[in-house]
Inverse folding.
């Protein structure tokens, strides 16, 4: 009887140890990830529903995450860059232009960077599109959703 109780205590202890070991993987956030660079999958959702936006195919995957002092910056590459005249993300209540990190004119791509408060919350964003050849312009709200479990 005594040894059964001892065994169950040991099992419980191991379960806790396992849980703590797995915690950083299951809840990737700045609090549990060490400073450094990571990659993360993400998807661009429509403004009003958790479904993939047309904009998704213009955002290359994965994103690069840069963690420093508990803060997260995400870098994403936009293709057909010349069509995307503006890309802003919500940052502390204000839509701010994502910072251009690099531009590859011949590939028509640019890599931009923005702050991310939490990998589990969506990042509201605004995109302006101009395709002169077909006279298409659009100003849209979109939302970036990171897959915290994909961070590596
Ligand atoms: C030749 C290029 C493109 C064409 C012909 C095109 C066409 C369209 C059309 C017909 C709609 C639906 C009508 C509307 O909601 O106003 C739409 C919606 C939308 N487009 Fe474009 N588009 C183009 C490029 C882009 C690009 C480069 C982006 C962004 C990076 C973009 C982002 C969106 C968004 C966010 C919507 C709103 C619906 C959603 O979120 O799926 N489009 N587009």
């Amino acid at each position: 009887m005594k040894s059964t109780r001892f065994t169950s205590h040991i099992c419980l202890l191991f379960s806790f140890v396992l849980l703590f070991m797995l915690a950083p993987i299951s809840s990737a956030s700045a609090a549990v990830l060490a400073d450094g660079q990571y990659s993360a999958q993400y998807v661009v959702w429509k403004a009003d529903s958790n479904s993939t936006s047309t904009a998704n195919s213009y955002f290359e995957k994965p994103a690069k995450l840069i963690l420093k002092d508990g803060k997260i910056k995400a870098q994403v590459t936009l293709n057909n860059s010349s069509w995307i005249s503006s890309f802003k993300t919500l940052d502390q209540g204000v839509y701010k232009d994502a910072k251009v990190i690099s531009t590859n004119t011949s590939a028509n791509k640019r890599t931009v960077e923005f702050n991310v408060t939490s990998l589990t919350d969506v990042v509201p964003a605004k995109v302006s599109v101009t395709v002169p050849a077909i006279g298409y312009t659009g100003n849209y709200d979109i939302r970036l959703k990171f897959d915290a479990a994909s961070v590596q």
